[in-house]
Amino acid sequence: MRFDEAYSGKVFIMSRASYTEADAVIYGMPMDWTVSFRPGTRFGPSRIREASLGLEEYSPYADKHLEEVRYFDAGDLLLPFGNAARSLEMIEEYIDELLEDGKFPLGLGGEHLVSWPIFKAMYKKYPNLAIIHIDAHADLRVEYEGEALSHSTPLRKACELLGPENVYSFGIRSGMREEFAYARTSRMHLHKFDVAAPLKKTLPELAGRPVYVTIDIDVLDPAYAPGTGTAEAGGITAKELLEAQMLLSEADINIVGADLVEVSPPYDPTGQTAIAASKFVREMLLGWVHKRPR
């Protein structure tokens, strides 16, 4: 499943020409097989790439230019339509390959269940891994209507794999009563409503640790990101999410991978959600990817 040649479709702006020279690899996970409300996130990766073509290559937030980062856009994994279990296996196998090759994996979703196999692969590589989860939803269900493989379950699975004390959620404003009760009693770290302020207080606890960051675009208020499958009123602004990204860039932590999920183009008529997402990906590349020795 490795993509050594340049992807034949759209690529993220300023993608390098080869896998070999890259420090980071962008890859798409076009899956929405388990969504419980509105499908369409399988089209998210390609629309984020398309929107990136309107970006400036220079970031005034990071004071860096994309030419300073070596990254390769491998395109989308060819996931079997409707087969969630096999799709997750393929994602995990691909992340295993990226980590073996020393790459920084940067995934574009797709529904949030796609993060679960990434967590598993990252944990094999980094046994002291912590997860930072930025989202509107707790995603702490054991199952959804009898299905354990659901976009509402990946963070519960992460807690069971890593230990809940190693999972940090921010911006949460939706979930079942039982999910919030689990967060309180399990020793996981769930911060409701806000992101930047609690993140700033939390980051010193993670000093020196490998951290994986997963961002669900629906952490933004629907005014800033209408193009998502399960929009929730009362979210943060795009500016606040950028502030959180800058905090992560400046923190004494080792970010070892990241993903951005749940962009759903059918509900994004002006393209504003994909435009925002592409900017967040730019800041991930500039702030979180560190060069490997040649």
TrEMBL record:
Instruction: Tell me the enzyme class.
Output: hydrolase
Q: Which cofactor does it need?
A: Mn(2+)
Q: Which UniProt keywords apply?
A: Hydrolase, Manganese, Metal-binding, Polyamine biosynthesis, Putrescine biosynthesis, Spermidine biosynthesis
GO MF annotation list:
agmatinase activity; metal ion binding
Q: Where does Mn(2+) bind?
A: H112, D135, H137, D139, D216, D218
PROSITE patterns found in the cross-reference section: ARGINASE_1, ARGINASE_2
What Gene3D superfamilies does its record include? Ureohydrolase domain
Q: How is the cofactor bound?
A: Binds 2 manganese ions per subunit.
Q: Which InterPro entries match?
A: Agmatinase-rel, Ureohydrolase, Ureohydrolase_dom_sf, Ureohydrolase_Mn_BS
The pathway where this protein functions is:
Amine and polyamine biosynthesis; putrescine biosynthesis via agmatine pathway; putrescine from agmatine: step 1/1
- Name one process (GO BP) from the record: putrescine biosynthetic process from arginine, via agmatine
The catalytic activity, as recorded, is: agmatine + H2O = urea + putrescine
Query: Could you tell me the EC number(s) of this protein?
Result: 3.5.3.11
According to its UniProt entry, the function of this protein is described as: Catalyzes the formation of putrescine from agmatine.
Q: Which family does it belong to?
A: Belongs to the arginase family. Agmatinase subfamily.
Question: What's the protein called, per UniProt?
Answer: Agmatinase
Organism from which the protein derives: Shouchella lonarensis
